[in-house]
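Before relying on records like the one below, remember that each one covers exactly one chain. Contacts with other chains, cofactors or solvent are not represented anywhere in the record.
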Amino acid sequence: MIAAVTGTVETVTLDRAVVTVGGVGMLVHATPTTLAGLRVGDRARLATTLVVREDSLTLFGFADDDEREVFETLQTVSGVGPRLALAMLAVHTPDGLRRAVAAEDLAALQRVPGIGRKGAQRIVLEVGTKLGAPGGTGAEPAPAPAVADGAPDVVEALVQLGWTEKVAAGAVDSVLAADDAPSDVPAILRAALQSLGGQRRG
């Protein structure tokens, strides 16, 4: 298992980055928020997990070891694969997921595209106390600065998470129309996800 990669960031897109380690470029899939903290040319460390399939080897990266452990634990739930687990971490922080599971907050879990009521119930039942107790104050971490005027990027990220382009664009437009509208990509994305609430994809 590749538990972490440390090296120079070569490229960053909305859903992946390439980190060069010892002359080898590692393609790492991650959440938009994690990727927003990377800068091309800088050195970075990502906790990682390698998902092995018959026809592919896919490396997923995380801001820290805790996020990786939550990602791996979520996949112990029947019907939850790596893509859905990553989408859950794109919508909620690790502690946010702990609080949702501990409180049996099905509405919070259903904010993730692809999770309906039955899926949320299954997650609560099968995860149980495996994620551990939430810590800290529950405040969301401050997003890293990113480029301004990133509305198209946010729409694309929401589409990748499962919403239609029309719904995603509507959510982003709503966020940007507010008097206190954020100007960086991670903040716009988080606000758009909050505005979508329980709206379903498709």
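Residues 165-177 form the longest helix (13 residues).
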